[in-house]
């Protein structure tokens, strides 16, 4: 393989990951109480979803990849100033998911799932998120919803790279 072809190959393989890292690296530029919604868009792009509160504040969801291990929730005040940046794919946020919660409540807490599956025999819909506990320590977190759309239970399992 020629040097130029090899460079083109490396660029094609790693460019998406590098672009994503570049976007997230800009998070350090965002300052609560100073940065604006426009600043957030410059760093992270368009949000995947937005929740509005009665007081005019709102939260933007930024999942990083369909099965990425990071989802940012960006809280903005009614004056469009940044209030907080939260990475929600963590054990602390997953621990807040309780039996009886709705799909909307779960989505609002930890963002959209990386995968959803229906198990008709169990009468369950299962939403799954990939997340890291430490560097290269990847796990799957699952929320099992019953036919009524409420959380029945949660489960987790370690990602095995060598099945």
Structure description:
The chain has 163 residues and is an alpha+beta fold. It folds into two domains: 3-87, Beta-lactamase Inhibitory Protein, Chain:B, domain 1 (2-Layer Sandwich), CATH 3.30.1450; 91-158, Beta-lactamase Inhibitory Protein, Chain:B, domain 1 (2-Layer Sandwich), CATH 3.30.1450.10. It is built from four helices and eight strands, in the order H-H-E-E-E-E-H-H-E-E-E-E. The chain has helices at 3-25, 37-44, 91-94, 103-110; strands at residues 49-52, 58-63, 71-76, 82-87, 115-119, 124-134, 137-145, 151-158. A four-stranded antiparallel sheet has the order 1-2-3-4, with helices on one face. A four-stranded antiparallel sheet has the order 5-6-7-8, with no helix packed on it. Strand 2 (58-63) and strand 3 (71-76) form a beta hairpin. The two termini are 32 Å apart. Residues 6-23 have low confidence and may be disordered.
In short:
The chain has four helices and eight strands; from the N terminus they run ααββββααββββ.
Name the shape in a single word. globular
Strand content: 25-35%
Radius of gyration: 18 Å
What is the terminal separation in angstroms?
A: 32 Å
Helical content (DSSP H or I, runs of 4+): 25-40%
Q: What is the N-to-C succession of helices and strands?
A: HHEEEEHHEEEE
CATH topology of the largest domain: Beta-lactamase Inhibitory Protein, Chain:B, domain 1
Structural class category? alpha+beta
Mean of residue pLDDT values: 87
The poorly predicted ranges are 6-23
Largest sheet: 4 strands, antiparallel
Count up the domains.
2
Oligomeric organization of the protein chains: single chain
The CATH architecture of the largest domain? 2-Layer Sandwich
Number of helices: 4
Query: Strand order within the widest sheet?
Result: 1-2-3-4
| Total strand segments | 8
Q: Which CATH C-level class of the largest domain is it?
A: Alpha Beta
């Amino acid at each position: 393989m020629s040097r130029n072809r090899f460079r083109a190959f490396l660029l094609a393989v790693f460019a998406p990951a590098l672009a994503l890292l570049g976007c997230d690296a800009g998070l350090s530029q965002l300052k609560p109480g100073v940065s604006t919604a426009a600043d957030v868009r410059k760093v992270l792009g368009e949000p995947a979803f937005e929740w509005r509160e009665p007081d005019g504040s709102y939260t933007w969801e930024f999942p990083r990849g369909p099965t990425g291990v990071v989802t940012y929730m960006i809280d903005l005040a009614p004056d469009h100033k940044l209030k907080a940046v939260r990475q929600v794919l963590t054990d602390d946020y997953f621990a807040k998911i309780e039996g009886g919660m709705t799909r909307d409540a779960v989505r609002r807490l930890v963002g959209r799932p990386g995968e959803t599956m229906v198990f008709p025999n169990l009468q369950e819909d299962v939403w799954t998120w990939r997340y890291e506990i430490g560097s290269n320590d990847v796990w799957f977190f699952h929320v099992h919803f019953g036919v009524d759309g409420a959380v029945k239970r949660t489960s987790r399992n370690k990602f095995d790279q060598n099945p």
